[in-house]
Design a protein that fits this description.
Helix content: 25-40%
Bound molecules: 2-(butylsulfanyl)adenosine
Radius of gyration: 29 Å
CATH architecture of the largest domain: 2-Layer Sandwich
Oligomer: single chain
Shape: globular
Number of helices: 25
Largest sheet: 5 strands, mixed
Distance between the termini: 70 Å
Number of domains: 5
Strand content: 15-25%
Number of strands: 24
CATH topology of the largest domain: D-amino Acid Aminotransferase, Chain A, domain 1
């Protein structure tokens, strides 16, 4: 209590920061440091806070304001440097011990056959060797990970970005299908599955929403997500949610030898598992079960959007492993898109972050599969003209014009598309669409390079559309993911004259500029003290960023998330990455060769990377940004593995596993696998028939071993 009164007294006789003398400021910074550090200890270590969140925030803010006015008086133990900012309202974050993956998609029978062939090829199985799959409905809800320790539910976390989700334990405990205690369960057991809402419950909930004057939910999936992500678990409890278990994460003991056994075991432990799961012994059986599930779709009572196939044998699943975000051993076979007909009111051009001019159809709103659609992508100028990228006719060459009646479809969550036009309803006075050859935003010429299906604005970073889209990408979920700074806020800040964000570095000077600014953020419409402080805290928290996220966030053409991961893993640190690109020359030299030696990096991506670091405006932007950041080096591969950090080249025929499996295996043990031999190669694994690569290795003095030796090295049973 006395501590609390101290704090109140402290803020009670506040002199406005502008009026403080240097001496007063120094004294006050000392007092604030003492009280805030004490408050942190009380909160974190003693679990006995003596300040409310609002009081604590007010003191922290005053400390920051004084420091902004007298930067040289900032203390070495300044509370601004303690990242122990309290968890804010909202959900706590949970790091998934094992990443939560998504699934690759198949859209037709052909895709499924291709998937199965790929699995066989990876495993080196003959066409007629037995290979079983499970097939089960793909539930349209949201995924949840439940961790049990000693049979007791300890955490429930949403998927989030796959690495970090939200802690919704209190809410999950209110779901009837989720057991609180398990008997005879492994000591540690993480069960994964889908939270969903049944159709009848959804309809009743929406009636209640409307009766209360609240907005109805668009579909059961949104209703389930909205209900699970309630800060007040009592609200979740009042919403009828269900849960199907279909997968698992960390385990202290295996659940079975096959997918079927493991799921049966989860059923025995008390989880709901889907009754339509079936073991299939061939592609034909998989497709037959898909058709059966599709026929029953309307009568199931809950939404499903496809069928998931999984390799049944868990040892094979383990061998197949994962690509960057999806397993090699499973795929989602989606149901066909739903279709609707409507009028195309207008064609608008959007300019993306790489300058691409993308035509968007503005449609008379129409419901497609339960969602109202008023925009659809038109891809590019050839698509509008009725041609594919090679100039061959699509839609029998029918072009798309303003005023046309069009067929719109949605496949899964993707943006609606236009499949066809109805010429019989075309207005008599309609004219072919004239695709612009100048950027509609900045007026610069828009050109189409040879072989590119896309026309691009040549305005670069001076084009406001490109700059703003680059920023939106920068803050997006898999990039910097700054809470409270999404696409909407970026647009607002981009157009703000007093407190603008025009390039990434501006994000990290926002707080400092705000403190010096008369038009403070907290006084703006839509903002308040809490939301402004929250934003600054979220930005501060992101000054520390993993290398892969940073590389992805830069938005360099051709460098997606998977490539950013490859680059981060290869270079390890920002310094090494930057040094290579700075010294690289296009098309030749050791740095260029190093880039190309990274498996998955080709000439097109390498050229985009080098250009981004050599083009003065874009380089300056990167330099201005990184000085605000602390870049976390890419995780170094497990150092206890004998091949960790080594660069390996496979050549010739391997007898015990396919080249693809050998590569995946080596990478999972922390090795880099390269396609070509150079001075940087540590090891060449040569099977029968090895030719020029083995020869080059011998010339360069690189160690060459046979498959048998390789298997012994990695501890695999031949
Ligand atoms: S298996 C490693 N099985 O679909 C793969 N996922 O599009 C683990 N989903 O994130 C997922 N029903 O949320 C699996 N029967 C099912 C599923 C299912 C729905 C969801 C899941 C996943 C998403 C991928």
């Amino acid at each position: 209590m006395t501590q609390r009164r101290d704090a109140q007294r402290q803020s009670g006789r506040e002199i406005p920061v502008e009026a403080l003398t240097r001496d007063q400021a120094r004294d006050e910074l000392a007092r604030l440091a003492e009280i805030l550090n004490r408050a942190n200890r009380a909160y974190y270590q003693d679990d006995a806070p003596f300040l409310t969140d609002a009081e604590y925030d007010a003191l922290r803010r005053r400390n920051a304001l004084i420091e902004a006015r007298f930067p040289d008086l900032k203390r070495p133990d300044s509370p601004s440097d303690q990242i122990g900012a309290r968890p804010r309202e909202g959900f706590a974050k949970v790091r998934h011990e094992q990443r939560m993956m998504s699934l690759g998609n198949a859209f037709d029978d052909e895709d499924v056959r291709h998937f199965v062939d790929g699995v066989r090829r990876f495993l080196g199985l003959a066409d007629d060797a037995p290979l079983d799959f499970t097939a089960e409905p793909k539930i349209d809800g949201l995924s949840l990970a439940l961790r049990y320790e000693g049979g007791r539910l300890v955490t429930a976390a949403t998927r989030g970005d796959g690495e970090v989700g939200e802690d919704v334990t209190a809410n999950a405990r209110t779901i009837g299908d989720i057991p609180e205690y398990l008997e005879n369960a492994p000591e540690i057991l993480e069960v994964r599955g889908e939270v969903y809402m049944r159709h009848n419950d959804f309809a009743a909930l929406n009636e209640r929403q409307q009766a209360r004057g609240d907005k109805p939910f668009a579909n059961p999936r949104n209703a389930a997500a909205g209900s699970l992500r309630q800060l007040d678990a009592a609200v979740t409890a009042s919403r009828p949610l269900h849960f199907f278990a279909y997968a698992w994460g960390v385990l202290s003991a295996p659940l079975g030898k096959t997918q079927m056994q493991a799921i049966a075991r989860l059923g025995e432990l008390g989880f709901s598992v889907n009754p339509l799961m079936k073991l299939c012994r061939s592609v034909d059986e998989m497709l037959a079960h898909y058709n059966e599930i599709e026929e029953r779709r309307a009568t199931l009572g809950y939404d499903i959007d496809g069928v998931v196939y999984k390799v049944n044998d868990l040892a094979l699943q383990e061998r197949l492993g994962f690509r960057s975000t999806t397993p090699r051993w499973a795929i989602a076979h989606k149901f066909p898109a739903e279709i609707a007909h409507t009028r195309l009111l207008d064609i608008e051009i959007q300019v993306g972050r790489t300058g691409a001019l993308s035509p968007v159809a503005r449609l008379q709103p129409v419901t497609v599969g339960g969602v109202v659609v008023s925009n659809a992508t038109l891809h590019n100028e050839d698509y509008i003209k009725g041609r594919d990228s090679k100039g061959n006719p699509i839609r029998n060459g029918r072009d798309i014009r303003k005023g046309d009646w069009v067929e719109v479809y949605r496949a899964g969550d993707v943006i609606p598309k236009i499949r066809d036009v109805d010429l019989s309803k075309r207005p008599a006075d309609s004219k072919p669409y004239d695709f612009p050859d100048h950027c509609p935003v900045c007026g610069a010429e828009a050109v189409r390079e040879e072989g590119d299906s896309v026309r691009r604005c040549t305005g670069g970073l001076s084009c406001p559309a490109q700059a703003v889209e680059k920023l939106k990408h920068f803050v997006s979920r898999n990039a910097f993911d700054i809470e409270g700074l999404g696409a909407k806020q970026i647009e607002m800040f981009f157009d703000d004259d007093l407190l603008p964000i025009r390039e990434p570095a501006d994000i990290f000077t926002l707080e400092e500029r705000d403190h010096k600014n008369i038009a403070k953020l907290k006084n703006r419409e839509g903002w308040g003290e809490t939301s402004a402080d929250k934003l600054f805290a979220a930005i501060r928290a992101r000054r520390k960023i993993p290398l892969a996220r940073l590389i992805y966030a830069l938005g360099i053409r051709h460098v997606g998330e998977a490539s950013a991961n490859l680059l981060a893993r290869h270079f390890g640190t920002w310094e090494a990455f930057e040094r290579c690109l700075t010294n690289a020359t296009l098309g030749e030299g050791p740095e260029w060769d190093e880039l190309l030696s990274i498996d998955g990096v080709g000439e097109v991506m390498a050229a985009a990377l080098v250009t981004a670091f050599h083009q003065p405006a874009s380089r300056a932007l990167i330099d201005r940004l990184v000085q605000h950041l602390e870049i976390i080096p890419a995780e170094q591969p497990a150092s206890d593995s004998p091949v960790a950090g080594k660069t390996i080249v496979f050549t010739g025929t391997l007898e015990h596993m396919t080249r693809a499996e050998a590569k995946a295996r080596a990478e999972s043990m922390g090795a880099r696998v390269s396609g070509s031999v150079s001075k940087k190669t540590d090891l060449v694994v040569a099977g029968p028939g090895a030719g020029s690569k083995a020869k080059k290795a011998a010339e360069l003095g690189v160690k060459v071993i046979g498959e048998q030796e390789w298997l012994e090295l990695i501890g695999a049973k031949p």
